Amino acid sequence: MAGAAIETKGLVKVFGENRAVDGVDLTVEPGTVFGLLGPNGAGKTTTIRMLATLLKIDGGSATVLGHDVTAEPDAVRGRVSMTGQYASVDEDLTGTENLVMLARLLGFDREGARARAAELLEAFGLSDAADRQIKNYSGGMRRRIDIAASIVIAPDLIFLDEPTTGLDPRSRNQVWNVVRALVADGTTVLLTTQYLDEADQLADRIAVIDHGRVIAEGTSSELKASVGAGALHVRVADPDQAAEAERMLTEALAVEVTRESDGISLSARADDPSRVAGALTELSGAGIEVTEFSLGQPSLDEVFLALTGHVAEGEDPEAGDLELEEVR
Amino acid sequence: MTATMPDPTDEAAGVLDDEKLKAALGNRTRPDRPGPVAASLTFGWRAMLKIKHVPEQLFDVTMFPIMFTLLFTYLFGGALAGSPSEYIQLLAPGILVQTVVFITMYAGMGLNNDIKKGVFDRFRSMPIWRPAPMVGLLLGDAVRFVLASIVVLVLSLIIGFRPEGGPLGVIAGIALTIVFAFSISWIWTLLGLVMRTPEAVLNTAMTVLFPVIFASNIFVDPDTMPGWLQSVVDLNPITHLTTAVRGLMGTGAETSDLIWVFASSAVLIAIFAPLTMRRYSRL
What we know:
With 328 residues, chain A is of the alpha/beta class.
């Protein structure tokens, strides 16, 4: 396939008064993972649903694997798979029944469908749950059967809408491994996520979406670089020395230092690593015991804040909580 | 990453096998797409599996017909036809029509539930014949229609129904009822796609079905009704269906009634099937 796997120009979707997607331009290269990052209601799901031919586009254009989504929806459907935000499998049916049904719908004969279902269940570690109804699956198992359902016929491109929302870290890692295996196999992946570390971990390129618009696009490092500085985090042993440490760091780094609510953790912007080393030496010279320190690139949280002027939290308070947990 | 660390105590979470995953992904079998019939039958199979897993949903196709048949026969039979055993001759084909036509509305509810659960997104994003999920749903319903018909019939036979048309006449009557039920179901599939909740679908369907079913000749002879109501009853396709079924199960149906039933079935499908499909592709 020459050209981009996905190309959109000025993509628009309007729901009543609300311009859910408001002129989105995207180019996704074949065989890469592209991450759409943004809070709830940013327009990620709407974008992905238009590209998967589930929603009519109201403006602009979109081609997927060289086919226009409006003019040739069936050609697109033949080569992509969609894994929705909520399990897009039949909860009343068992794992095997779901996969056999989908394989039959894709043209496998009875025997072929059974064999393919068994192969997928095995590969996704679900053989033991093969004959259980999906409604008795755990969250992680659900996501896996859902992704298995998307690759009954290995697609050229797969849409994953918030593949790890609500999963525990272990299940999330398993989904990440599946995504990596898909890419290793040559599949193009477009995923949406509210988790900044997820985009960081998986995506070759990231588009940050807010209020239906792409506000930044690039690799994870490019996005971080565009925001600039990294951050220094220091924790002192003795709370009584925190104020002194704060004063010394402020002086040594010549930036504002914030003390966290625990009273012993300090954070500061750190543009110049050599200055940081000097500041830490000064602390130990003054007899202030440091129990922990770290110097990092800015997190994508900070990137989001810098780009949008507001923190990356959705309207859904639950999602916000989850995100705090994720980032720790 | 420590994701592949197997945790033997966590059986339910399962373990991903990278090698098997690679093999499964590498399996690039691409069979030919199935035709409309094969795709619809697969969805019909899905409906059967749902009945197998959630047998409670058969409650309304078994208990309701039993209740209605007994209630009407013994409560009104004496007053309306002289005796319950005489009334059941008239009522049995009618209550069959009523029962089957009533349960058509669950098609809309089922569809509405599917959409809310997200499984329809997957079907819609697959390269299959577009009406297949709906047709399959209705094929599954046909099984429920047959079950309900058998329940009504057996109960009616027990309490004294003696169809002169014999087994063939009875089967023809049931078949005709199911043809009409399949056609009217498209109204509810449309509602199922348009409305927000399964409850709303049910309420709307009830509001439509109640007057349509009762303003017919199912329960009483229209001769006793006021003139204006008689004209309404005469125009009601349910009346013609009931008359035709009585005829088929009795001494023979009038061609004009059969034409009425087939024509109204065709009109229902011609209007509501395309509307359903239009709405489906625009969800």
